[in-house]
Amino acid sequence: MGQVLWRIARNQQFQQEYSEQGYLPRECGRRTAAAADNVNHHRQGQGGIDIYQLLKARKSKEEQGFIDLEMLPPELSITILSYLNATDLCLASCVWQDLGKDEYLWQGQCKSTWGHCSIYNRRLPSEFSYRKLYMQLDEGSLTFNGNPNEGIEYFMSKGILNDHPEEVAKFIFYTRTLNWKMLRIYLDERRDVLDELVTLHNFSNQFLPNALREFFRHIHAPEERGEYLETLITKFSHRFCACNPALVREVGLSPDAVNVLCYSLILLSIDLSSPHVKNKMSKREFIRNTRRAAQNISEDFVGHLYDNIYLIGHVAAS
């Protein structure tokens, strides 16, 4: 019944528009309008809603255009603008100057992109501007992506970061705008920052391949095997065991065993994902090869590792 009423109302609207423009005889338009009025009158008698009136109201609202945000309560206007990114917010400030420059909005822009900065925890002066801070953070990130050391020095010179490995590690951990290649170069040089960055990861109750993927999403693995990759896997192995003491007891894991399993997972990932390898490693072969290096690990556990790589993919994909 609702669909029928809607179609009649729409037909009445079309008939009126077309009759006004001379496309339909007036008599035909009057008959259609009369039928629609009867249905609407019957619908209103039953306590329903006049669909035709709703359509007219909707059309009149569409003709009025967008609502002026300055006419709304400030809390509602700020909430609407909070869904914009920084570029769109700057454009909005050209129309709604006071709303577009609101400090609350720019504070959200800063913290959504750069989750941790030392300056967030300080008592800020009354003339402090989060909009200006956003510009500085953006400038510093671009500088970092060109030269990591200069980028960090820029943040420190502006008072955005404290000169402490833990603060720098938190900034890196909660920021997603830094180029991963430059980040890899910086962490290879700053092992003190790397140590703090590893401790920020929580691998509790995570399956080993999934934890390794999360680790390499924040700290990208080098393209070739070398001393830096060995350092990363060693640090990951100790952190994984520290976060999962129950698993260490039940499965018999140790940092050395996790170290061996990590290399096995990386090699298996390359074997299964590389188009140049025609004869892929089977599950039986993986279990046999891994058990030779880590004898205390059960075959079932190693088999689950193989299944995870086979179904989900590479543990160190960029």
From TrEMBL:
Stretches assigned to the SEC7 domain: 126-312
Coiled coil: none
Annotated signal peptide: none
GO biological process, one term: regulation of ARF protein signal transduction
Domain of life where this protein originates: Eukaryota
GO molecular function: guanyl-nucleotide exchange factor activity
UniProt protein name: F-box only protein 8-like
Organism: Acipenser oxyrinchus oxyrinchus
Gene name of the record: FBXO8
